[in-house]
Amino acid sequence: MAGNVGMEHLIPIVNKLQDVFASLGVPLSLDLPQIAVVGSQSAGKSSVLENFVGRDFLPRGSGIVTRRPLVLQLMYSKTEYAEFIHTKGKKFTDFSLVRKEIEEETDRVTGGNKGISNIPINLRVYSPN
């Protein structure tokens, strides 16, 4: 990793802060480096995030599909996999299973009736890319 050395040291600290706050169920109210993807329905928000990751992994469909915020952390690793905070230690190498887990975790919190929640899903994607 070449680039801004200060940011390279800051990013792991920010990721740890996000993990601690998420595990405590406390909203993180610090101004930290981040990207927010917002827009109307079918505006391409999922495509923007998937382009950062280089994988298709977000739920698609008609109606309200994204019903919880997603906190996505990109981590450098020699191998490619994904982990959720709520499934600590379980590594997802099949990104279609990441999509399925997002859908199932959304339904666990919001129910199957298209409810919406402000409780985020925390996802880390590890990759050499």
Automatic annotation (TrEMBL):
GO molecular function: GTP binding; GTPase activity; microtubule binding
A GO biological process held by the record: receptor internalization
Entry keyword set: GTP-binding, Nucleotide-binding
UniProt-listed Pfam families: Dynamin_N
SMART domains linked to this entry: DYNc
Dynamin-type G domain: residues covered: 29-129
UniProt keyword GTP-binding, yes or no: yes
Gene3D superfamilies recorded: P-loop containing nucleotide triphosphate hydrolases (3.40.50.300)
SUPFAM superfamilies per record: P-loop containing nucleoside triphosphate hydrolases (SSF52540)
GO CC, one annotated term: plasma membrane
Keyword Nucleotide-binding belongs to the record: yes
Sequence similarity: Belongs to the TRAFAC class dynamin-like GTPase superfamily. Dynamin/Fzo/YdjA family.
Protein name: Dynamin-type G domain-containing protein
Source species taxonomy: Eukaryota, Metazoa, Spiralia, Lophotrochozoa, Mollusca
